[in-house]
């Protein structure tokens, strides 16, 4: 049985869903969020997940981000089956290999832009003197240096999202998960952010999974996956 | 390194919500000042009592057995100790000092004023061993007397005053005694001390009212007590032998317990402060649910979240206990001054240690209060926390 699972996880996919179901227990009956999902993402993929509200997009993203575990089926991240992993193991996997980009940026309000970027790196390395790496990542996000010492509340939406992407990238993860990354930005800033993500995918080989409602944004991805009622119904690209 | 970052995080959060942090700190300050001040007061009380009783803490008191038939050859009065028995005690306790004491109440006349006091009859040589002189001299000749400090003060007795003791004759006061405080043996503060020969001539007593044995080496006090009992109570219990150190220990233990109890009551204020910190920390967790979700999603472990919140409680505790500890010195000074009219016991190690206790209790209470909020924060579901608005 273990060999069979190992075989499922070692097919070269960076993310693999194999007959994954996710149920949420509610009084009365369970809600089926994902129903036997099979999905393979290769390293360097850029995937957009689309679907109506409640279709299971966020559940899919949460599972990929090791924030949750499947009710049944196998989910492999970087060749490792996450079933049976402890909370600490999942946290370390998330910290070292996965970067999150949120619709509402979710920067830590007490920290400056630079400190927000430093935080995950310090978590990983324990080293507070890691400014070079952080400055390089922030510079790559084309954020004005004078803003590094600003608190999130002193930055515009676009600037906040650039800091958030820098934070997601600072530990050099192979996977970037973006939940409506342009949802709170005007179209011009949204386009700039999407160009940034596309560039990260093209030039740095980052695997990007992005949830979006916007077909124009989805077109930046190489594949579009549609999900309805917890089932993948269509894959384009 | 993580610890420094989380500590810094906690420090910033305490500063951000400075008003409620201040209120929590105030609670801890009040709690620490209360328990330390009460603790210092209790300790000062014990020390004050110990000081006033310690002069008799090295004695064994031999008195006629309360329900006994008395001493000697049947003819002597049952409630007194005969010369023969005193000799027996002296032999039993040698080389320790045996001091037989006569005592009795009497009406006295000082100048034109009538009063009542206790008259103690002691051998002149024994008096310096037992009592200290404040002014004048020890007894000279058999018709002189020494007045107790309070007795002298109340009756305006000076060296050279004359006291007429009932119809027994007149005595000249040659010395005033140092105030001795409450004792288990004799209480000369409210009486006079005369030579035993004068007492025998005046009253013709059948025996001594008590015998005090001054033990030179306190470690032998138990053995000496047993030896007296073995010698005198061989056939039946004829004397009661009291070890004053044991009484002193019992009294001090009782006062120590009272002091602990009152300090514990003071601790209630610290519990209230702890509840306030618990409340503030729970508010902090509720306000920061989304932030906790973000922290978890970017790779912060549960134990690290716990640490972050415990540091917050620790900071509140450290500041509150630090300020409380300093203010406790003033609090202890004030209560000692008001309750005991002295602050001489404030800066002794056994009082100052209460500041360390208060500091430790303050921090302990803060950390205990932070445990549940920290646990709650660390166990939040990251997905639900991220969704929280």
What is the secondary structure topology, with strand pairs?
The complex is a heterodimer of chains A (237) and B (389).
Chain A (H helix, E strand, L loop, with lengths): L1 H8 L5 E10 L6 E11 L4 E5 L6 H8 L7 E6 L2 E2 L5 H11 E4 L11 H13 L5 H10 L16 H13 L5 E5 L7 H18 L2 E5 L3 H4 L4 E6 L2 E6 L1
Helix pairs in contact in A: 4-5, 4-6, 5-6
Chain B lengths: L1 H15 L1 H37 L4 E6 L18 H11 L3 E14 L2 E10 L4 H4 L2 E4 L7 E4 L1 H7 L6 E4 L3 E9 L13 E5 H8 L6 E5 L6 H12 L6 E5 H44 L1 H9 L4 H39 L8 H30 L3 H6 L2
Parallel strand pairs in B: 3-8, 5-7
Antiparallel strand pairs in B: 1-9, 1-10, 2-3, 2-6, 2-9, 4-7, 5-8, 6-7
Identify the notable features of this structure and list them briefly.
heterodimer; A: alpha/beta; 6-stranded mixed β-sheet; 4-stranded antiparallel β-sheet; B: alpha+beta; 10 strands
Q: How far apart, in Å, are the first and last alpha carbons of chain A?
A: 34 Å
Please estimate the helix content of chain A. 25-40%
> Largest beta sheet of chain B: what is the strand line-up?
2-3-8-5-7-6
Strands in their spatial order, largest beta sheet of chain A: 6-7-8-3-9-10
In terms of structural class, how would the helical and strand content of chain A be classed?
alpha/beta
